[in-house]
Amino acid sequence: MKTVSKVKEARRLLKKPQVQKFDGSLHTQKFWCYCCGLEVEKHVTDGNMMVLFAGLIEHMATPEHRKNTHTFWWQNKAEQKIKDKFLFSKEEVDR
């Protein structure tokens, strides 16, 4: 599942965040959140520097995403033991 690999990469970058010089081709990348039914910015930028996967992580830490993930898992009878992989805590985002 492509989404799983994006989330794994984001979790890996939590340990050592990557900041790069702004790159318009990367900044415009988005990801589709199946749980929320939204297209979200994948990275975060201030126009000069860019934090990779920060948009994905920030989105997956919102209360709305948490609620939508629970609903998505229940409606689709998805495997419960992997649901937490799609949720980030506020503490993880603050890091």
Automatic annotation (TrEMBL):
InterPro entries the UniProt entry points to: CCDC84-like
Name of the protein in its database record: Uncharacterized protein
Superkingdom per UniProt: Eukaryota
Pfam families noted in UniProt: CCDC84
